[in-house]
Every structure is written in structure tokens, then in C-alpha cells.
Task: structure prediction
Amino acid sequence: MSLFRQLQKREAADDPIRLGVIGAGKFGTMFLAQAVRLPGVHVVGIADLSVETARSNLQLAGWNEQQYSAASFDDALAHRSTNIVEDSKLLIDHPAIEIIVECTGDPLVAIDHLVACFDAGKHVISATVEADAVCGAKLSQLARQAGVIYSMAYGDQPAMVCELVDWARTCGFDVVAAGRGHKLDPQFRFSTPDTVWDHWGLTAEQAEVGRLNPKMFNSFLDGTKPAIESAAVANACGLDVAANGLTYPRGSIDDLPNLMRPTGEGGVLPKPGMVEVLNSLNEDGSEIGYDIRMGVWVAVRAANDYHQKCFEEYKVKTDDSGRYICAYKRWHLIGLELGMSVASVGLRKEATGIADEFRADVVAVAKRDLAAGEILDGEGGYSVAGQLRPSAVSVPMGALPLGLTGNLHLTRAVKRDTVLTYDDVALDETMTAVKLRRALEASI
Result:
């Protein structure tokens, strides 16, 4: 039975999946715009540090005041409405809420939320993929021990790549590579929140109307978010990372089959079974036609001559050997698609992606010369960007995870384009995120 029909059955039985949402920013608002349209789903509560901002974003998303005017969770349950609070613990501890959607975007805060959810016996859908990049495999272990589901968020690119990889493997194909698209010019690596709209493709006015956070969008532009999401894919799908990280080969969707094959066969991969990101810009900065900047893809290879013949018969776009093909989704709709995770976790008790391994890591790299005494401002900011590395490389060198760099004190100077290490900062070892990260590193 389809997920949607199962949701309709839950609606007819007046037995909806009951959710709590932590964070009513861009991702949360996009999901909430859809949540009121989903049968068999009830957002019992929303937690946000600014209740007024959450209310304003719900109005922007098309909710009417009656839908979010519940005075308590009991009131929300009685009248199928939503209660908005500041304290996320109230959501996490409420016995009627089955699933928590964590979409704060802050890995340090998110990890605290996730562990609290596991302790409370709650399933979690995490849109804060940064937490996965810090200690995803450890979080997955804690969830299993607690007997709950910990899932990536469908609509975000990692979960959608996981879906394509699962499709390929379930069909019997060998996955050669998988990943997402991006646009990257060398100068973008040093972009800041002040310059992001000059290159992103939106005006500052459009960004203001959409209530877009320049720091968050800058994390995409400077390559941090592609690194984070590629790490999540590698760790969830058992794929590997090139020694120096992503190479961003340039091309269109139709170029994928030729590019995503080993170098010995004319491609860019050091070996089969890799993550990579396709660059949608030419060297002169112009845009490549039929790009996959906002989408996801998987590359597979024909296992035999019969496979290759079938590709030919069904007019599949292949590489020049006829043996490599790619499947893709050209767009992802972020929080607008999260209903797939809600239904999968709530009905099938299945995650839409989960990090089971620690193959890939995201290290912090200085965007400029940094002085001792500075305070690092984390993902998408002015001081550091994230780059992908194999964990077998990053851990022995003591590389500082990008996800731990928010509001972190720098103890010594670091030159531009240098990977930061633990020795460069004053780290609070008592934080839950740091403890889990240390435990994960000890497993390498």
C-alpha cells in the first residue's frame, strides 16, 4: 500500500502520526507549509527560541491563527491544533509525540536534542545534517540502543542520494559513484555572508522577502554544505572519499556517465564506489546547460554484455563505452518533501537514510589568515569553511571537525587555506557533541 493511502487510513481512523518540530527557520517553515496539507499527520507542537518568529513564519507558510493558537499540548491534542513553545524539552518529553523533527541547523544544539530524544524514546528525523558529519555513526548507535529510529530528512539531498543508491543496488547494479550538484568557482571558497548574494543567483531583496539566512546559504556557496552532505552520503551508503576530498568535475547531466567512471576508463574517479559533486560552472564562470546544481544522481556500470545491450535497446544515455549510466533527480525541494520521511518513519518504521559508518569527515579550513584569540563563527561564516576528507586521513592528523567550530576560541594563529587541528583551539570537552565525537574517533 502506498504511503499516502496509509496516511489516509490513519486520518480516517483519527489516529494521526503526532509530531514535534524543533526549529521554525527555513527548513522547518517549508515542512510546516506542507504538514497542514497531509492527512494522518498532526504537528502537536513547535519549539523555537522566538515564538513570535515562529508565528510569523507560520503565517508566511499559509497557516491561519486558529491552527497554531493552542494554549497547551493537551489543548493541541484535543482540537488538532499546534502549540508553540520556547523550550524544546517540553516537546521531547511529551508522551503523545511520536516523532521529533530536528531542524535547528546548529550541530552542537542538535546533538543535544537528538540524545535527549533517544533517552525519551522518541524517533527523530534530523534535518541538521551537520550533526551527522560530526558523529553520525555514534548517534545511529545510540538510537539503536534506545530502540528508536534516527533518520536523515528526505528533501535534503543526502536522503535523496541514499534513495537513488538503494534503488540501484536493489535493482542489482553496482554503484560506481553518487552525489549531488553544485556551482563552484575558486573564489567562492572564500565567500562570506556579505558576498553570498553576489554569486548565489538571488538578489538581496529576494533573499529578504524569502527570509533567507545569508550565513546558511553561504555554507552552500563556499563548499561547506556540499562537503557535509557528501560525508553523510558516504557514511550512509558505504562509499569512499578521494584522499584530498571533492574534485568538482565540470559538466552537464549528460556528461555524468563519462565523468563518473574510473580514471583508467577516461573518468575522474580514483576507483569505483566514491562520492563526488558535479560542478555546473565552466572555467570562465558561465553556467553549463542542463545542469544538476540543485539535484542528485547515482552512476552505475553494466555488469555484463546483456546489461549493456538493454541500455542500448531502451535508449539510455550512456558513456562512450555504452557501459556506464546515471539516474538522477534534477531538483530537491528541501522541507517541502519531508513528508516522505515522516510517513516512512511513522508508518513503515524505516529511516530515509542513516549514517552507519565513519568513512568520511568534514574538516575546518581557514578562509583567511586567522589570529590567536579570534572566535570562530562556524559554518557559512567569515573564518572557516568545510572540506571533505577520508576519516582515515582526518582523524590521525587531529583535524578539527567543521561542526565544532561555532563560537570556538582560537588559541594560535592559522594561515589561510590551512586545515585547523584540535591543537589550534580551546575545546570544551564536556559538551555532548565533543564526547560523542571523541568516542567515534577512538573507533578508527
